[in-house]
Amino acid sequence: MDRRSWKCLAVFVLFSFLLSGCYYSGAKKEMANAEQSFSGLKGAGGEKLVPYEYTSAEKFLEISKIEYDEKDYKAAKGFAERSKSAAEAGLAEIKKK
User: Fold this and answer.
1) Side-chain half-sphere exposure of 95, counting CA atoms within 13 A
2) Which of 2, 7, 16, 80 is a Cys-bridge partner for 31, taking CB atoms 3.0 to 4.6 Å apart?
3) Domain range for 65
């Protein structure tokens, strides 16, 4: 390989490491936010008052943890976002009642 090919390969490897680090920290932060929202929903009695939103938030958070453990940080972040959204929707419904 010539010098130019090595430089391109080095840039590609560096970029991929940086990008994977961004997904890692983003997933971890979003999972923490989802857990906080879910515990708020659980504390407000969401299991009885809004069972659909409660179950959705719980299962999306579980899937997020599984994806995180399998090092699929992008999917973990996506499921954590869905969990947080479901928990927030459940809390909004409880406040309406």
Assistant:
1) 8
2) 80
3) 23-96
